[in-house]
Every structure is written in structure tokens, then in C-alpha cells.
Write a structure and sequence with these properties.
single chain; 306 residues; nine-stranded mixed beta sheet; 9 strands; globular
Length: 306
Amino acid sequence: MHPLLVICICTYQRPERLRSSLQSLAKLQLPTGLNVAALVVDNDSVTQAGREVVEELSGSFPFTLNCAVEERRGIPCARNRCIDELDNMGADYLVFIDDDEWVEPDWLIQLYDYSQKLGGSSVVCGSVVRRWPDSVPAYYSRIFYRQKRKTGEQLNYCATSNVLIPMSSIRSLGLRFNEQDPLGAGTDVIFFTEFKAKGGKIVYCLEARVYEAVPESRANMRWLSRRKFSAGITLAKHKLAKGRGHTSIFVSALGQLLISSIGCILGLIFGGKRLGSGPWLRACRSAGMACGVFGVRSEFYRVVDH
């Protein structure tokens, strides 16, 4: 019997983006010797716009496409629903992508084949290529997102924007996404931090690419600042989960905040926003990390970008 891999997409009130994502999945080249299915978890129990998109496309989809509606609001709740559904299906691999991403035809082959090359028990994190609106300055992509990693690089954590997870690891390690802060960001980072702490391996695969079009609503310094502050809160949780002390994290965050603030001032003086924006965002992250030590929460996903 061939292994079963299920591609999971969690969605909330973004039917057009979900439709584009699913249409790209319909063009996938499938790995040989593998059963493939797709599952959409609609986190909007009121309008259920995601379910309507699935019903529209499922009849002509090249492989099984199902939908589940998760009534509890929050992205960790939707992700845990994916785990539960795959458990019931007896799936061997769970693959997450976001509802605003699209994939290359060979994406799944690259992701799955690399997983098998590693023995099939590692988490494999693919790459995300972001397309910025033409209206934003070119330096935005440089200051906000990390440089590309190399295939084979081992990671301490990753996100659910493009990742393959062996279900055997989830079952044996008892992994779940933390639902205590359902509208906050970074629950995937904490999930994979726990996976790594329990002996799991996370490996990067550059060739397994997905694409994301950054909407105008995110292509501004206000949104980027909120995102970095939220990322700082997540970083504090990550460090705490690894056993680092509260005082150590707080002092480190304050030091980074001071350095970044000075860099921001000097950058604005000598290069305007082009040089000042990077240090400013690092300062926002440091401020978030300092606040995160004291349990400050950021309900980053309360408002959805369409």
C-alpha cells in the first residue's frame, strides 16, 4: 500500500486567494508511489466561504479534495483540526501551505523526494518566494525577510507556510499546536521548537518553492512594524521554551533595542527611510521580545488581510 500524503490549507474569509492556491495544486506533478489528497480547514463557521470554494472545485480536482469546518476561531485550532482529520484518515505525511500561496508544478515532488532522501522521518521546510507590489520600495524585501538558506541546512524551528511533517512524529511525540493564544502569531514556531527539543530534525529544501503575493495592506511600515513586534514576542517564547531565563532574555532584548534605536536614528539622518527602516524593524522585534518575557500577547490574526 502506498503512503498517504495530505496537503492541508487553513483558511478564513479569503475565498479568492484560496481558489488560486487550489488551482495551482490542481496542476501538480505527483510523486510516484504516493497517494495524495488535499484538505481545506475553513475556520469561518458563519459564512463558510472556503467550503464553498472546495465544493466548486472538488468535482474536477485531479485528486481527492475535502473540507472540514473548524468552529473554534484561531489558527492553532484549525491546524490541530488538520492533525485530527489526518489521524482519522491514517495519513503518513501532513503538508502545510497557506491559503494565499501558490506552488510550482514540481513543488511536491521536490518536497517529498527530499524527505525520502533523508529517511522519511524529518520535517522538511521548503522555501517561500514573496512577490511585493510594484508600489513599494525595493528595499522592503531586503529589510524584512531573511536571505535564502541552502538545501540541507538544519533549522531550530520553521513555519507552516511550506512544510512536510511525518505523522509518525506527531503521534509518537504527542505534538499539538498550543491553543492558549488562538489569535496570536508564532504558534507554529513553538510547535516546531518542541519538535526539535524532543529530538526531531528540521531540514531546509530550497528547491521546494511556493509563492506568496504580498497584498497592499501588508506592504507598509505600520504592518511590518506590528509583524516584527509580534515576531519578537514569539522569539521570547521560543527562548523560554529552550530553557533560557527571563532576566537573560530581557537584558538581551534591551541591549538589542538600544543598538537598533541608535542605528535607526543614524540611518534616518544619513540615508532616510532606506537606511533607517531596517534598524527600526529590528527595534520593534527587540521591543516585542522584551514584552514577551512578561507574557504580553499580540492578537495578530484578529484582523484578516484580504
